[in-house]
Amino acid sequence: MAHHPFRFGVVAAHARSGEEWAAKARHIEALGYATLVIPDNLQHTLAPLPALAVAATATRTLRVGTYVLANDYRNPVMLAKDAATLDLLSGGRFELGIGAGRPTAATESRMLGVPFEAGGVRLARLAESLAIIKPLLAGQRVTATGPQYGAADAEISPLPIQQPRLPILIAGSGPRLLALAAREADIVALGVGPEANEAVVAEKIALLREAAGERFGQLEININLMMVGEQMPRWIAAQFGANAGQLARSGAIPVLTGTTDAMCETLEQRRETLGISYIMVSDGLLEALAPVVERLAGR
Predict the structure, then answer these.
(1) Residue 164, preceding bond cis, omega within 30 degrees?
(2) From first to last of its 299 residues, what are the pLDDT tens digits of the chain?
(3) What is the radius of gyration, based on Cα positions, of the chain?
(4) In a domain, 1, yes or no
(5) CB count in 10 Å sphere of residue 200
């Protein structure tokens, strides 16, 4: 089976100034990373789309993306317009990451004055949103009659540079969301905790394969590493109650340890057995992974 070339990305969301943010983007690019992506939070982080516009302006080849936008926070027609504009202004370097929203996002929904719906409702809204966004980005006119979204002869211009449309990443963990991603996404970000072993990840990929059918080979599969070498960000330890020593010995898929040679061998083996080729790290781990990026990027 043919494999996608390795790509590496950095998840970043903080800066004290525009120059600091631009410098971070340039450093990520200089280290050979393919993408800079940003999460979607109301508090404590930069707003995704304007921050990505600045990062794109500060760089030449670095692709920029959302990881991931909460679908319920934005009108799909306006999001398509924003995505097309950002792709145009970045010279065709934008990737739209979108999801149904974190189960823990109820507080942010209250801040926005919108209901925090059950997972099934949020999933249905995401499916409807994609049915509007994707044809708009491809230059089509769209009419939608709900039940969640309505649009009458909607169209956007200018269109994105990337055609037939810019890449769409969908993040998910559960079977229904993975099935939607398998049908609609170009890139699938697997939502797993730091202790997820190969069997857990293989089960999710089997769900993707079944739902995607013939298009499975087109999917780029992404995972976010939570430990590289001996380094693990404090927020991961706090959020998941993870222990660095235990994780290092666990063989978990979001963990990469050993020498540079060993880490490269592990990633190549995981691509062979699981199809994972797009590797993400938080900006606290970008230096730790840099030797691997230098060795494997694009291969």
Answers:
(1) yes
(2) 578 999 999 999 999 999 999 999 999 999 999 999 999 999 999 999 999 999 999 999 999 999 999 999 999 999 999 999 999 999 999 999 999 988 778 889 899 998 889 999 999 999 999 999 999 999 999 999 989 999 999 999 999 999 999 999 999 999 999 999 999 999 999 999 899 999 999 999 999 999 999 999 999 999 999 999 989 888 777 777 777 788 888 889 999 999 999 999 999 999 999 999 999 999 999 999 999 999 999 99
(3) 19
(4) no
(5) 14
**CA distance linking residue 257 with residue 260, whole number of Å:** 8
- Is position 2 within any domain? no
Q: How far apart are CA 186 and CA 158, in angstroms?
A: 22
The span from the CA of 150 to the CA of 295, in Å, is: 48
The CATH number covering residue 210 comes to 3.20.20.30
Q: For residues 273 and 98, what is the distance between their CA atoms, to the nearest angstrom?
A: 26
State the maximum Cα–Cα separation within the chain, in Å, rounded to a whole number: 57
In a domain? residue 89? yes
Give me the DSSP letters along 21-80: HHHHHHHHHHTT-SEEEE---SSSS--HHHHHHHHHHH-SS-EEEES-EEGGGS-HHHHH
Going by their DSSP bridges, the two strands 187-190 and 63-66 should be labelled as: unpaired
- Contact by Cβ (8 Å): 200, 180: no
CB contact at 8 A, 216 and 245: no
When divided into structural domains, the chain yields a total of 1
Segments forming the whole domain that contains residue 174? 7-263+274-296
Query: Considering the entire predicted model, what is its pTM?
Result: 0.96
Q: Which residues of 39-63 are buried (b: 16+ CB within 10 A; e: fewer)?
A: bbeeeeebebbebbbbbbebbeebb
The answer to whether residue 39 is domain-embedded is: yes
| Residue showing tokens 């679908």 | 71
Task: Round to whole Å and give the CA distance between 187 and 170.
Answer: 6
